Recover the amino acids of this structure.
């Protein structure tokens, strides 16, 4: 049994980190997700994959309550999201952030602590120390005083990951964290995500590179408006399911997989 916060009732080890049931999301009456069921156990590193327009980001946002749902239910650790929001951290797509906003790297990371300290009280020494520890973990401590707009795309992504880490969440959602980053940054990010998993935390990632799914993740959800499959990578990341999700576009990838075997 693990506690969701000091003094709260403990989290049962067998409770699902995420449980999505019969989820439908529509934009202007057009379904973007249709009757989707997804279950994510605690302590896994899960990829959400599918073709462009499949609803991957929409699924993430629907789980987080950032877009309205037409039907269905979402539970986080067995309860509605508002009751468990303090256990959840979110890293959006880098392209959705206004990087011209005049703020420093350290201040961006400190924003991850506002839920704890409040928006009125200024972060103190303890909060700044925690933020610097997170920056050190992602290799960005030397850039603490730099303006966020002056960083490269990969460096900005590391800073946003540090902001997520300081929240002490148990469940992390990340939308395309590897997009537009160099190979060194990608390796650094996946090492941090795997470390979170080793600490029994759950990480859900919208991911586009099918080649790295078996290497990076142990759980996967394939969607294309509807859920195609959800479960352990070794069981559901199959040619049949990939063809169901991607159709004829899978021929090149499958040939590459076979050549690599």
């Amino acid at each position: 049994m693990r506690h969701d916060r000091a003094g709260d009732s403990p989290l049962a080890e067998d409770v699902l980190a995420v449980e999505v049931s019969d989820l439908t999301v529509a934009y202007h009456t057009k379904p973007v997700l249709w009757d989707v069921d997804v279950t994510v156990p605690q302590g896994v590193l899960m990829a959400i994959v599918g073709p462009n327009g499949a609803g991957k980001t929409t699924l993430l946002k629907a789980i987080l309550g950032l877009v309205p749902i037409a039907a269905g239910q979402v539970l986080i650790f067995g309860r509605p999201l508002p009751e468990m929001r303090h256990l959840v951290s979110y890293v959006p797509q880098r392209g959705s952030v206004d990087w011209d906003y005049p703020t420093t790297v350290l201040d961006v990371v400190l924003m991850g602590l506002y839920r704890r300290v409040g928006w009125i009280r200024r972060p103190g020494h303890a909060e700044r120390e925690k933020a610097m520890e997170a920056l050190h973990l992602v290799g960005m401590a030397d850039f603490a005083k730099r303006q966020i707009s002056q960083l490269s795309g990969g460096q900005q992504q590391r800073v946003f990951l540090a902001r997520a880490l300081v929240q002490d969440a148990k469940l992390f959602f990340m939308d395309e964290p590897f997009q537009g980053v160099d190979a060194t940054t990608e390796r650094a990010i996946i090492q941090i995500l795997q470390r979170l998993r080793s600490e029994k935390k759950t990480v859900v990632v919208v991911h586009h590179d099918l080649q790295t799914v078996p290497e990076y993740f142990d759980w996967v959800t394939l969607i294309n408006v509807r859920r195609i499959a959800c479960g352990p990578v070794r069981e559901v990341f199959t040619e049949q399911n990939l063809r169901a999700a991607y159709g004829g576009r899978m021929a090149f990838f499958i040939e590459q997989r076979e050549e690599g075997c």
